[in-house]
Amino acid sequence: MLKFAALGLLACFSLTRPAVAQDVNLLSRDGSIAISGMFLSFDGEFYRVDTDLGVLTVDSSGVRCEGPGCPDLDGYYAQVRMSGDAQGMHTLLPALVTAFAMRNGYTVATSTPEAGLTSIVLSDVENDLIVGEFLLSETSSSEGFADLVAENTDIVLSLHKVTPSEMVLAFDAGVGDLSDPLRARVVALDALIPVVSRSNRIGRLSLADLAGIFTGNITNWQELGGGDAPVVPHLMRDDLREGSEFRRLILGHGVDVPEGLVKLHDSYDSLVSAVEQDPYAIGLGRMSEGGAVKALGLSGACGFEAEAAPADIKTEDYPLTRPVFLYTPAHRLPVLAREFLAFARSPAAQIVVARTDFVDQGVDELFFRDQGRRFANAITHAGEEVTLKDLQDVTRSLQGAKRLTLGFRFEGGSTTLDAQSRSNVHLLAELLEAGVFEGRSLIFAGFSDGQGAADVNRTLSKRRAETVLRAVRQALGEAYEPERMLMVAEGYGEAMPLACDDIGWGRSLNRRVEVWVRDQR
C-alpha cells in the first residue's frame, strides 16, 4: 500500500514526488503496548500511523519509535504543505507567510525548487534553528482538494466552497467532514468579472446576458447593443466544474455549456491574453488577476447596477464575489501550521492582504451619503407594500450613521450564516474586543427580499439581525461588555433592495444583515 509521506521528514521533498510510507512500531516506555503500522506524519508532538484499526494519533512523549519510517527527532522541523489556486499561491500566501514570520521574529529564505513550487524556510537566527518550512504548490482549487484526499498536502487554498463530490472523497479518505465550518477559513476575497477587449463599446451586462452568451442563446454583439459581430466566449476550465460560482450564479442549476461553444483556458494569463487580442471576445476574469482588458459592470432589469469595487466585494453587494478559503483536514496539524492559520484570520493579516491583488476583509466605514444609489433605487421601486413612511423610517434610523463594509448573508434556504459571514463574525468580534467601537452604537440592520407580505418580511429580517447579533456576542464570550458599546437589532424588511427580486440571485442578495455604527447620543 502506498501513502504520501507527510510532515516531519528532515529532507525537503517536492509535493509532486510522494515518498513511499514505511513501517514503524510505536512502543510504550515500559514496552507493554505496541502500535504497528505505516508512518503518515509527525508534527513535533504527535505521530500519525495507519494501522489495522485505522489512522491513530499518538503522543510522542509516551512512546519510542522503531523502524525504517521513524523521523529523525534531533533534526526535526515542521514542514507545512499547501496546494491550490495558482494566483493565491504565487502572491497571497507568500505575503501572509512572510508577515507571519516577521511577526514572530523569524527570518525568511524563499526559493523555487521547481516550476510551480515555492519553498519558504523560517529560521530563528538567534538560536541558529530552522523553525519550519512552507511548501506552496501552484495548482488549482480542484487539484488542491485532490492533493488533500491523497495526503499530499496539509492545507488547501480554494476559490470555491468544497463541492459534494469533494466532500465524499475527503470523508472516505479519512480527511474528515469538510462541510464542517471548523474546516474552512476565509482569508481574502476575490470576484469574477466579465472582461472584453478595450475596443469593445459595451459597458455592462446583466447576469441573464452572461448566461445567454455562455449557453449559446446570444451569439452576436448586436443583441447586446454592440456592433454586428460574433460573440466569442472564453472561460477557465475550472469554472465548468461542479459547484463553481459560474455555474451557481450565471448558468443556474442543471444548465450546461454546449460542447465546443466556449474556448477553455487553464490559466487566467491565457484567458486575459486571448480576450485582449480579440475585439469580439468576452471572458470571465478575476479581480486579483487584472490585465490589459476592460472590466464590465453588472446590471439588472429593475435598474440595479454593480461594479467590482473593493467596498462592494467586501459587503457582498457585488453578486459575483468569491471568498478565498483555506481548508484543513480533521486531523492535527503542526503547531507552526496552527499558529499560521490563527494569524491568517486576524485583522493584522488583512492589512497584508490589502497590499496584494486580492481584496482584504478589513472593516471600513461608508458614509450615509455613499448609499445614495441604493436609496434612489429603493424610492424608484417603492410600491403599495413599501410606503414612503417605511423609507422615512429607514432614513431616520440610519442617517448620521456609517455602514461597515462587512455584511452577513445566509446559506440558501436556511438561517445558517454563509462562510464569508462566519468569518465576518470573528473579525467583528475581534474589533469589538480590541475596543475599536467603544462608546459607539452598533445597529444590526436586517433586510429581506420582496417575496411574501411586507409585515412578515419585516419580522423575518429582524430575526436575521438578531441571529447575527447573537453570533457576535457568542464569539466575544466573556469579552462582551455591554457597557462599552450598545448593540441593537432592527428589521426593515424589503425597504432597500440591492438587486432585482425577479431572479434567485437577486433575492439572495437582498436577504442580508448590515452593520451601521454611530456615536452614542
How does this model look, in words?
It comes from Celeribacter persicus. Keywords: Membrane, Signal. Residues 397-521 form the OmpA-like domain. The chain is 28% helix and 27% strand. The strands form four sheets. Strands 6, 7, 8, 9, 10, 11, 13, 14, 15, 16 and 19 form an eleven-stranded mixed β-sheet that branches. Strands 4-3-2-1-5 form a five-stranded antiparallel β-sheet, with no helix packed on it. It has a five-stranded mixed β-sheet with strand order 20-21-24-22-23. It has four domains: 23-66, Roll (SH3 type barrels); 78-183 and 328-354, Periplasmic binding protein-like II (D-Maltodextrin-Binding Protein, domain 2), CATH 3.40.190; 191-314, 3-Layer(aba) Sandwich (D-Maltodextrin-Binding Protein, domain 2); 363-519, 2-Layer Sandwich (60s Ribosomal Protein L30, Chain: A). Helix 12 (419-433) packs across helix 13. The relative contact order is 0.10. With 521 residues, it is an alpha+beta fold. The radius of gyration is 25 Å and the shape is globular. A hairpin with a 5-residue loop joins strand 1 and strand 2 (34-42). The chain has helices at residues 86-103, 141-149, 164-172, 207-214, 245-251, 268-277, 310-314, 335-344, 347-353, 372-380, 388-398, 419-433, 454-476, 504-510; strands spanning 23-28, 34-42, 46-51, 54-59, 63-66, 78-85, 107-114, 117-124, 129-139, 155-158, 184-196, 204-206, 232-236, 263-265, 281-286, 294-295, 297-299, 305-306, 321-327, 365-367, 402-404, 440-447, 486-491, 512-519. The model is unreliable at 1-20 (pLDDT under 50). It has 14 helices and 24 strands.
